[in-house]
Amino acid sequence: MVEVKKLDTVYFYFSANEYQKKNIYEDNNVNDSLIIYAYYKDDKELIRLKYSKYEDFDSMFAGIKTYKKYHKKRFLKRNKDKLITIEFLNKLDSKQRDEFLGARRWKKNFIIDEAETKGRKVLIRRAFVNSDYNTNDVDEFKIFRTRNIIPFYKEYQFDDNFYTFLLPKLTLISEKEDLYILFEQSNGVVKEDINNSGVQRIKEQYNFKLNIKNHVVFFQLTHKRNATSILDKKYDLFKKSYETISPNDLNNFSEKELERLFARTRNIYIVEDFTKNDFVIPKLVMPTSELVDFVKNNND
User: Fold this and answer.
1) How buried is residue 80: exposed, middle or buried, by Cβ count under 10 Å (0-12/13-18/19+)?
2) The whole model's pTM is what?
């Protein structure tokens, strides 16, 4: 156990059965192709790992795909000391499992699915621990640090506070509409330039504080510097062929109206300075959910 905890890289060997289950999802927002691998013991989940085409929004915007490559089977022999199997996981008690999970969360994990073996080659995918932080055997005392709430919310727990984000999943279908949000900074609407390693304006982030069913909900949109930006006439933007809304519209929509809005939305664009100029530059944005200072300071 101590040796495994010290390893920077491990390879989970997966062979589907009643104790090793795999679910495949099609998600055109970030993950594109999302696979969840879960290991079980006595009907209780031991550990869950996730593979997705892109690790996160940053990777998607940069076009960096998650590692996935075929290797010769002798790779398994060379790395047998780094292989994690269901037999290994079954030997862990609750405390050891939590220690193992904590040690693995920020290190390199890969998944080798027996079903994807081709002749003398195995497919190795980069995977990420996707299990709950606390794995107490009593379900009532589990702490969910992050959870998805139907239909399109994500909730985070940070210390003793809970933060809820509006996180709709957009569908890339041709008949869907593009949505243009007219941005004006106010008390509940802010823009931040996010810098990284001294490089100016790596991304621009737009945060909206909404009130939905008497609950504070944040709607966060992120524009990456290399994402689409096209000069457009303001007159054309307000034609009926475009769907434009203001932050005030967002805040006044009911939950059902929001659900219908995003159900017909393909892409979201932010439009700034629309009252000052004859031309505007709609910026392609994606819904994100980062615990930035504006979110932490306005959660009431």
Assistant:
1) exposed
2) 0.51
- CB within 8 A of 35, min separation 6: which ones? 22, 23, 24, 25, 50, 51, 52, 125
HSE value, Cβ hemisphere, 13 Å, CA-based, for 134: 11
Is the pLDDT at 194 greater than 50? The verdict is yes
Model confidence pLDDT, tens digit, residues 63-101: 788 999 999 999 999 999 999 999 999 888 878 887 887
Cβ neighbours of residue 163 closer than 8 Å, sequence gap 6 or more: 155, 156, 157, 218, 291, 295, 296, 299
CA atoms of 203 and 40, how far apart (whole Å): 40
Task: Reduce the secondary structure of the chain to three states and give it as a string.
Answer: CHHHHHCCEEEEEECCECCEEEEEEEECCCCEEEEEEEEEECCEEEEEEEEECCCCHHHHHHCCCCCEEEEECHHHHHCHHHEECHHHHHCCCHHHHHHHHHHHCCCEEEEEEHHHCECCEEEEEEEEECCCCCCCCCHHHCCCCEEEECCCEEEEEECCEEEEEECCCCCCCCCCEEEEEECCCECCEEEEEEEECCEEEEEEEEEEEEEECCEEEEEEEEEECCCCECCEEHHHHCCCCCEEECHHHHHHCCHHHHHHHHHCEEEEEEECCCCCCCEECCEEEEEECCCCHHHHHCCC
Tokens 């290399």 label which residue?
A: 226
* Half-sphere exposure in the Cβ direction for 205 (13 Å, CA): 20
How far is C-alpha 42 from the chain's CA centre?
30
